[in-house]
Design brief:
Oligomer: single chain
CATH class: Alpha Beta
Radius of gyration: 21 Å
Strand order of the largest sheet: 1-2-3-4
Shape: elongated
Largest sheet: 4 strands, mixed
CATH topology: CBS-domain
CATH architecture: Roll
Distance between the termini: 27 Å
Structural class: alpha+beta
Number of helices: 6
Number of domains: 1
Helix content: 25-40%
Order of helices and strands: HEHEEHEHEEHH
Length: about 170
């Protein structure tokens, strides 16, 4: 077993978060085209059960906007919005995106500063190629550390004199 200390763990973090987004699992995005009704967007989100956003893409796949559950709850609940209206009524135009050559650190920072749960990944032509979710990042980070690290006590210097339990 490797001697795991706080400094050993701290030393590994930059190399792990410096990995390119290519190493993460990417989910196929829920997409609609401009002009899709808000009702159809909500149905699409509910039907897939994999996310809380619908991405609005042109017919060539270029990302133009996103409708998140925050958009929906912030404007639909208690508001006067007709669900027959097009998605453009509530969507966020030109959402923040990343590409596959950016790092895990980049997605973590974007998720923290922008309070995003899903980050769209686009290619050089702004074509949506996938979505990275918070759970994908957490899973990758957890899998990057050996089992011994994940089973350390909350206080690494803590030693247990006797086994717990009967």
């Amino acid at each position: 077993m490797t001697d795991l200390t706080e400094s050993n763990v701290q030393d590994r973090i930059p190399s792990i978060t410096g990995e390119r987004l290519r190493v993460l699992t990417r989910w196929p995005p829920v997409t609609v085209t401009p002009g899709t009704s808000l009702a159809a967007c909500l149905d699409a989100i509910q039907q897939t059960g994999t996310g809380n956003s619908v991405f609005v893409c042109e017919s060539d796949g270029r990302l133009v906007g996103v409708l998140t559950e925050r958009d929906v709850f912030g404007q639909l609940v208690g508001g006067d919005v007709d669900l027959a209206e097009p998605v453009e009524r509530l969507m966020t135009l030109d959402p923040n995106t990343l590409d596959l050559d950016q790092t895990i650190q980049d997605v973590i920072v974007l998720m923290q500063t922008g309070r995003y749960r899903n980050v769209p990944i686009v290619d050089a032509d702004q074509v949506l190629v996938g979505v990275v979710r918070q759970s994908d990042v957490i899973r990758y980070l957890a899998e990057s550390f050996p089992e011994e690290l994940l089973n350390l006590p909350p206080r690494p210097n803590q030693t247990i004199e006797e086994s717990e339990g009967a």
